[in-house]
Records
---
Amino acid sequence: MKVNAPGHGVVLAGMIAAMLLTGAAIFSAGSVTHGFVSYYAASRLLVGGELGPTAYDDRWFGEVVQRITASSVREIFIPNPPTMSLMALPLVRLDPQPARAVWLLASVVAFIAGIAALVRHRARQRDALSSPVLLLMMLAPAVFTNIRIGQGYLLVAGLFAAAVVSLLRGRDRVGGVCLGLRLALKTSGVALAVLLLARKRWTALRSAIVTAIGLAIAITPFIDAQMWFDYLLQVRAYVDRPASSVTAYQTTLGLVRHLCVADPQWNPTPAANCAGIAFVLPTLIVGAATMLTVFLGMRAARPEPWLAAAASLSVLSLPAVAEPHFVLMAIPLALLRLSMAETVLIGALLIVPMEWTAERFTTGWSSLLAYPRLYAAWGLWAISVRQMWTDRP
């Protein structure tokens, strides 16, 4: 079967974007910031046999980061699982600075490879991506935030793209392994696992579970096993922190909490006094969205919409989400058939500077304007649901 190639305009746009990302990675390689140092320090602790529950103590881990990097930069380990310490394991023999440079370039390569695979898939469907959508996927602020601080979500996005394309091509074992790596390293992709269960993609689901559990078992002899018992408690404690209500956290929980729960330091001027629903309502919203996605996903005629919905929910269901996480919105952007109006609206929400929104609208009802990334993720989920409904057999 003849496979269509992406159009010349898309190829040119992709090449320009790839050069810009590579240049940004090279420019950022000389900095020492938060982000990458968390992975690097965790891997160093793992290799040294020092990784245990104390890593969830922000002060202790921050001091470890400063000691290892010989800088004033601090980071935290929470809310990550112990297996997060595997992310920078191949780099621990390098000093922090060269390790960061290698990390950035490898992350950019993984991200570009994932985007290229998604573009190729659309070309195979004779439904090529447009150049503006491709540029939005590759040059959104979330991408450059990952590069600037060395966060790991370019790598996570690359793994997600590899999982999605493998599932689309019927290579369920490979797709499951990629998903399992994401689940182990960042506990990201649970929604996709739920959809695989609903679709009875047993090979993919089994491969994901075996990969994730296998990594967890492999790492346990080298850490204090008590860390696993503390992990879930620490995640809950992290979500309960008053700081989670600041507008930098683009989550449904963060939005409702910011509107409803007062805190003298982090949220002195909420819009209302509705603390009783601040934790219940977001859970109900995300739970209902998941149930609707499963119901429609079981009957979806095409795989692209339910995979796009799973990608959106994989971000929307996380307890703490900031700018770097929204690089994963490249997945639904690549899979969905967007109208011009939808592209413009979602694009505006993904590229509007956070200093114009999250940092400006922080009081009362005006804070509803502070969550553009959250609205973009819900918008892409809604478009996925609509396409599953219209495409049903």
---
Amino acid sequence: MQNFSALFFAALLFLTGCSRPELPLQHTIPKSCTIYDMRQAACIDEAELLRRLSPFRVVFAGDHHAEPAMHAVLAALIEKLGKSGRNVLLANEWFTPGDDALLSQYVSGAFDGNFTDAVGWKKKAGYPFASYAPVYAAVKDTGGRLYGVNMEKDFQKALSENNLTNAAGEERRFYASLDLNLSAHRKMFAPFFSRCHARQTGEDDEACLERMYRVQVAWDSYMAQQSAALAAAQLHTPKDLLIVFAGAMHLAYGIGINARFARRSREPFVTILPVPEGTANADVGEADYLLFYPAKPAEEGDE
């Protein structure tokens, strides 16, 4: 009987030791957190975050587009980074490399026209410029630089319509080289691509959904390509810091822009994602750091 019991418990330990945990694994975040280090599984303060960022020259920072409070928190962080001696280069998805000359004039104070009109803000973003202004002001006030990493509208349109007839050879090669086999990324976006939008003539659902996903991959890949080029060209000293500022879904779980950047650059990086205050849980591997911002007050009648 003793031998049977020993074998039973040995088998139980073997089975439980080799079984996979139920997914997803999550962190439970203390209510008092303003910054959460996901690798250490602990709350830290802003001064500690600055120390932990000091060895890195590339930071991916997620954006919640419709959250002015989030932009204010990021602006404050950029101010602190600049005052700590970092040379901040902000690469933003709302702009393209074709905007770089205008962006340089803007942050240097040499541009005296209407910046939002000149850069075509309403067509590029669709969100109030006033919400983002503190971020750009922080870059400007600390002597930083501002860059664009997104695709030009004509190229975006050609990708969306799957019509690259008039695209340059380099653009066609880029499109043909896209890696559509990052399974975790495809799975994350599957709920968003469950229904075909703007089906083209003669296109069935499967072809439409595949085209939509290819555009998403192209979007991430292009911003990664441009960010890697900036890192190679602009990061000269340990004080230089490239912050790639893009929608959080482009960066979550390290499988979007950041994963494709890592294929093009050996520069180490960290990812910071924004979360509203009161967030109680976060998936393991979602980011390196979570940056909390004040949640919107509940509207009257909300439960």
---
Amino acid sequence: MRDELGSLPSLRQRLRQLGETRLAPASTAVQTPPPSQVGAAVATALERLAARLEAEVVAVRGGPVHLVARHSYPLEHRHGDHALLESLRLRPETLSLLSRQSPVSELTAEDALFFDVETTGLAGGTGTLVFLVGIGRFRDGLLEVVQLFLPGPSDELALLAAVRAELESRPAYLVTYNGRCFDAPLVQTRFLLHHQRLPLETWPHVDLLYPARSLYRARLPDCCLSTVESLVLQVRRSQEDVPGELIPGIYFDYLRTGSVEPLARVFYHNLHDILSLAVLSGVVSAAIEGAPGGHPLDCLGAGRMLEAAGRASEAGEAYRRAAAGVRGYHREEALWRLGLLHKRYGRHAEAEQVWRGLVSGGAELQALPHIELAKHLEHRRRDCREAADVVRLALALPAARHPALRAELQHRLSRLERKLAASAAAEARAGGDYAAGT
């Protein structure tokens, strides 16, 4: 390498000729406060934060510390348009559906742990610290929320020990929002970096992001928790809140300057995330279970989820509620899915009725109702003539301008016409044989 690039001094000379003034680390150390001064500044800031939040600073054998803030809410407490009590009405079979086949036997809504973290980076990774952990649970007729705060990187072991104690206090399942991919893996990473293990991947886990997408994507611009809060739960946060993207910077400012006022807003943000998780779990469950007063578009998403879970009867009712409450494309989709559900469970007469209603109503849906009705008429009713008429109606739809769909319809029509021609020829031969015989 030295033969190819020249000796190290010659490289330095060339860099100087190019105008480089800094070729090596500075000869004098950067002036930083002594560790004792840094520790004293953090301790003072932590005391001020604890006083502001009415929280407690907990020391571990005189060494690492963490801060604990506790809150309690009665079940009648309303967060937006909904009371916390609604979350306790979750049925076991709906819990199983929401957990996406995680083991939830013997667990109820009262065993939920509402879990949310604030971190020094939104992308995760081993360099990302978890500096605030919020955990909520129902206990003794209250929703109790504990917030565990990391005063500084050197105190991480104390924070992790407190998190473990809170999570493992009794059998439970996690309730998060995108926590399956972010919160839980990140907390596990912090444990692993300290040669410890908290196997959150084995816990039953209800990640509300996934049912929220199924239920609300038809009527919301996106499914961020803040959007769901505003448009579904009708939650209006005060000016004390802080946008999530600013939170890492606020924590770093606290470490550098001891500023606690912005950090108190992060605690507010985390606390309201926990409240939203608690309420949203009840709202999502009510939508899936068909509670009165739900948005009809949510019924369409609920039907898809129930059908995937094998709860066919409830799925059919959800599709009917959606079709009765919406118009246009979403009504057609609800009826289309209802027809498929009938077909899947062998209720062919009911499926035909749905297909006919969609076809006569001029439904588009990429000609799918027309194709299903044509298949039913051809293979079950043995009525190739009407089946061909239905395919011709499909070819007149704007969707049939798409080359692939048009080719499929033309192929189906050609086959039906060949069958009709063969049937006509057979009838003609039969008629000729009859005439010859007489």
---
Amino acid sequence: MPRICLVSCSKTKLQKPAPAAKLYASARFRLASKYADKGFDAWYILSALHGLVTSEQIIAPYDRTLNGMARSQRHEWSLKVATQIREKVPGEAEIVILAGLRYYEFLVPLLTTFGYRVCTPLSHLGQGKQLQWLKRKAHGAL
């Protein structure tokens, strides 16, 4: 079963277009992407503007977050992302989402309906504990 990781974008970005894996500059994103890069068959970024983004995809800086969107807009975004995932990821895959609630609240039920096995390991942790967890995972501690 393929293991896929979805990492949320970050507010902190470079000031010029870059591959998505380099554009997002927060410590949380860097730890999550490092873990995703070495622990999964493939990984993607959940962009509030673009939806599902590959790490190599060149994108320009933007200022958009799901935290500022209305519930209906987040639902629409999730439908778009679920469709993008179905186009790229086999239906029997396990999907691990390293993101905040706004990024997965509608996405998890959609993906589950499509037959994916979905896990949100950070969902029960506060911000500080999330960073600790990501540091352990990124640096190889299981």
